[in-house]
Structures are given as C-alpha cells and as structure tokens.
C-alpha cells in the first residue's frame, strides 16, 4: 500500500513539473503565437483603425459645438466564432470618449437600456422615503444624435496548401435626425496558416 502511495505522489510531482507555468502577457509587446481566430490584438487594431478613420473624416465634429451623443445599435456577429461584440464596441467607445467629440448614452439601446438604473432611479419620484431634491427630474435624459451599427464577417479560403481566414469589421455611423450615414468603414483582418488550424 505504501509503494502505491509513493508511486502516485511521484507521478503527481512529475506531471506538475511538466506543466507550463502561467505568466502575464504585455498586450503592447505580445510576440506570442498568432491564432486563426480573432483575438484581443485584432479587436484593438480594428477599433483603433475605425476610430482614427472616424475622427479623420470629421463625422463626429458637431457643427453646433459640444459633443454628439451616440447610441450603440446592433453589431452582428457573422463569424464561426462565439464573439462578444461588446469587446470591440467598448474599445471604440472608450477611444471616442477620450477624443472629446462623443459621449455615449446608456439610457437606450436595441434591447433596452444598457444601464437600467437610468430608468429605475426615476421611479423614486414622489417616494416619501427619498429627498426629492436629489431625484432625477423629468426631461433630463439626453436623446442620441448618432447611432453606431455594424457587422463582423468571416470568409475562409484555400490558398495553395494553406487556409486563409478573412475577417471584415464593417461599421456605420448614422445621423439619427436625417437617417444618413455620416461615416462608414471596413477593417480587414486577414490570417493565413496551416489547414490544421481552426478559426472558431
């Protein structure tokens, strides 16, 4: 019985010694392997490219001064991956907010308010439990001027003995008063690698 216990302990220690150690990755200097799937580097590249294009176009320069209010509409995932499109959108929102040209509303959205507290806080009106001087008044929410929508597409192709995976991040910025697209852009992320690699 003791021999079995010693053997099991040695085997456990041997396997633990062979395991790859966990380490931090510096996103700004990541020289790690590139996968065929979309990763954080691709989202960063697509977001910064899109924001740069949007700012350069002048589409977010409010002729009346001040900042536009933008709402995020639907970003459709048409890839073979299970993507959280909010990862891309959040990077765009942060960069636009830092530009000083745009603020984003969380009071409205395709599937309802992004932050439900916008409306919940207003249910405190006329409640005897709350000091009414601090309760949000009617008519204080700001309606959006602009809407950001888009789609992420994936196309797989054979290139010789390799596969090529093409991703297209397509975005549109719509002026809600007129319904006109003030800006549109497409960022391409193209990867080529072994047929054994998977892109989902």
TrEMBL record:
Record's keyword terms, sorted: Signal
The UniProt record lists the keyword Signal: yes
Pfam families in UniProt: LpoB
This protein's record includes keyword DNA repair: no
Signal peptide: 1-21
NCBIfam families documented for this protein: lp (TIGR02722)
Listed name of the protein: Penicillin-binding protein activator LpoB
Natural source organism: Vreelandella rituensis
